[in-house]
Amino acid sequence: VQLVQSGADLRNPGASVKVSCKASGYTFTNYYIGWVRQAPGQGLEWMGRIDPEDGNTKYAQKFQGRVTFTADTSTSTVYVELRSLKPEDTALYYCAQRIGGYLAVWGQGTLVTVSS
Fold first, then answer.
1. Rounded to whole angstroms, how far apart are CA atoms 86 and 96?
2. At CA 76, angle to CA 72 and CA 80, rounded to 5?
3. FRET pair for 55, CA 20 to 30 Å: which of 18, 74, 76, 108?
4. What is the pLDDT of residues 90-102, one digit of tens each?
5. Residue 70's closest CA among 86, 49, 91?
6. Residue 28: which pLDDT band, with cuts at 50, 70 and 90?
């Protein structure tokens, strides 16, 4: 099982960013994918999750209205788009396969830097 994320990204405040997470080694639609981020010097922060089978999403309240998760079953890839970026959105963003309520397998992380 492997989750491979897109590369680092630098964005201006107010812009949007879209990070991808390509899954392999298992049946893509069998497990939720969760998104977590970690800002510099901070702990892990749960953003939400998506069910790749039907696209059903659940977002942490903090990100409601500003984040969208999507899944492409033809390429076994999930995406997170975060809009109206602020400098405090600078963080490592991780996708993770959720098994039985646990985040069992993690992507390598994608650094998103928001700076003018």
1. 24
2. 55
3. 108
4. 999 999 999 988 9
5. 49
6. very high
